[in-house]
Design a protein that fits this description.
Blueprint: E1 9-11, E2 17-19, H1 20-23, H2 30-65, H3 67-93, H4 96-114
Antiparallel strand pairs: 1-2
Length: 115
């Protein structure tokens, strides 16, 4: 038995032949889908812009409060630099024998750290 088939109909699993027009009657057109996607996209953009402005306000508040903390850190670093300058002056006053002893002690300490 030979059956012919054309591009305007479909052979159904339960038997029989149906045309594409009958099957596609409940589908949406592309323009309807695009309109629905546009509505969803608009709502998403509104939510994103609200979230971004909320985040920026929080960051601005934190930046204003952190100014005094940053200044105190810089002040603390100045004190540390002053201490380093004092250490350099002390090393310049020390004689050469003391400098060699200090180097030997630090090297021995490093050996203990390896074990």
């Amino acid at each position: 038995m030979v059956q012919t088939y054309d591009n305007s109909s479909v052979i159904c699993a339960g038997g029989g032949v149906r045309s594409f027009a009958d099957i596609q009657s409940a589908s949406y057109s592309k323009s309807q889908d695009d309109a629905l996607l546009s509505l969803i996209a608009d709502k998403t953009q509104l939510i994103d812009s609200y979230t971004k402005s909320e985040t920026n306000n929080l960051l601005n508040n934190k930046a204003d409060n952190g100014v005094s903390y940053i200044k105190s850190e810089i002040y603390a670093r100045d004190e540390v630099n002053t201490k380093d300058e004092d250490d350099i002056l002390l090393l310049l006053k020390a004689d050469k024998t003391q400098l060699i002893d200090a180097y030997s002690k630090s090297e021995t300490y490093a050996k203990y750290e390896l074990y």
